[in-house]
Amino acid sequence: MSPNSGDYDAGAVARTLRQARLDAHLTQERLAQQSGLHPTYISLLERGRSVPSLRAIWLIARCVKLRPSTLLARIEQESDASRA
Amino acid sequence: MSPNSGDYDAGAVARTLRQARLDAHLTQERLAQQSGLHPTYISLLERGRSVPSLRAIWLIARCVKLRPSTLLARIEQESDASRA
Q1: 3-class secondary structure per residue, A42-82
Q2: Looking at the complex, does the CB of residue A25 fall below 8 Å from at least one CB of chain B?
Q3: Which of A9, A37, A79, B69, by CA, is between 20 and 30 Å from A49?
Q4: B48, B10 Cβ separation under 8 angstroms
């Protein structure tokens, strides 16, 4: 079931984080090394099984060379698109 | 000591969340009621003593009538300004 418009959408977060990593040509392992986050945590985030902390968003955004606000705008777009 | 440019800046997060709440004419108690977050958690966030989850950012953004990405852009601006 899709979340309502504006609700936190774990699937959209997961897909956006994964796509941003792939766009930056990083493996999960490499992203973990660069960000300092645990590889298991990154895997959980990309499967929508864990909610990222805002600090994790900052660390990941830096590694994929996006502003945190840009990463969130992509999550919003992904969430809107998946409900369309 | 200020964080380096682009680092997660707990002070900037705290100040931005507090200002967004005040701009929306909400007390911490009212924001807690509307968001479903615990009043103590909101107090900790506004003092930079706890790192918000991305889901908390979503819930707070809705209550203060901002997009989550807009809230993050304000945090980035606040962080840049405090280092200037």
Answers
A1: HHHHHCCCCCCEHHHHHHHHHHCCCCHHHHHHHHHHHHHHH
A2: no
A3: B69
A4: yes
What Rg, from alpha-carbon coordinates, does chain A have?
12
Q: Provide ipTM, 2 decimals.
A: 0.93
User: What is d(CA B60, CA B36) in angstroms, rounded to the nearest whole number?
Assistant: 9
- The verdict on pTM exceeding 0.90 is yes
CA angle A29, A34, A38 (to 5 degrees): 55
Helix and strand totals (H; E) in chain B: 5, 0
Inter-chain touch A70–B69, beta carbons under 8 Å: yes
Taking CA A52 as the corner, what is the angle to CA A50 and CA A53, rounded to the nearest 5 degrees?
135
What is the four-CA torsion angle of A45, A35, B4, B67, rounded to 10 degrees? Answer: -20
| A76/B72 Cβ within 8 A | no
Asked if A12 and B15 touch (Cβ cutoff 8 Å), the reply is no
What pLDDT digit, counting tens, does each position of B4-37 carry? 778 999 999 999 999 999 999 999 999 999 999 9
B81–chain A Cβ distance below 8 A for any pair: no
